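Summary of Year 1 activities. Much of the first year was spent building the evaluation harness for sequence design. The harness presents a backbone, in tokenized form, and records the residue chosen at every position. We chose the following record to illustrate the format because it has been used consistently in internal testing since the harness was completed.
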């Protein structure tokens, strides 16, 4: 799995003109699922998202995680994170097909919600407009 995690002050996703998910302070996570990913990797990704310490403490150091600041997660599927860009037209054969990707994407959502985080989502496979206000800016790539 591959994720692009952005610390945000707010983020939302719109499908067909309607807002389907929105958060205040927290993480916008664009999540790509590889064709060979497993449930164990979904668990590991949820652990990494939940445990990442990129919010400042009273000393201004990135030392607090999502739970410490009461943040939420906007999780959006993003198969293009596995683009093969060796040619001018990207290929996506490394990205998982929906029959593999959807259950693993949903597992990450369930793992985060099970830990008490408010999680909003996009619509898997839809054409989405993602809006965010990057806080910092802080953007980190996570891989399992």
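For this record, the design step produced the sequence shown next.
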């Amino acid at each position: 799995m591959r994720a692009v995690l952005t610390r945000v002050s707010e983020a939302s996703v719109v499908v067909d003109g309607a807002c389907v998910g929105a958060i205040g302070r927290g993480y916008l996570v664009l999540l790509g699922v590889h064709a060979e990913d497993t449930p164990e990797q979904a668990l590991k990704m949820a652990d990494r998202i939940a445990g990442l310490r990129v919010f400042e403490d009273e000393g201004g150091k990135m030392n607090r995680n999502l739970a410490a600041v009461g943040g939420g997660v906007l999780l959006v599927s993003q198969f293009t994170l596995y683009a093969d860009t060796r040619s001018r037209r990207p290929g996506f054969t490394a990205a998982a097909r929906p029959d593999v990707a959807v259950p693993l994407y949903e597992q990450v959502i369930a793992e985060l919600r099970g830990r008490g985080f408010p999680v909003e989502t996009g619509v898997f496979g839809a054409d989405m407009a993602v809006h965010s206000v990057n806080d910092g800016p802080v953007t980190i790539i996570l891989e399992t």
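The chain has a mean pLDDT of 97. Quantitative recovery figures across the full test set are reported in Table 2.
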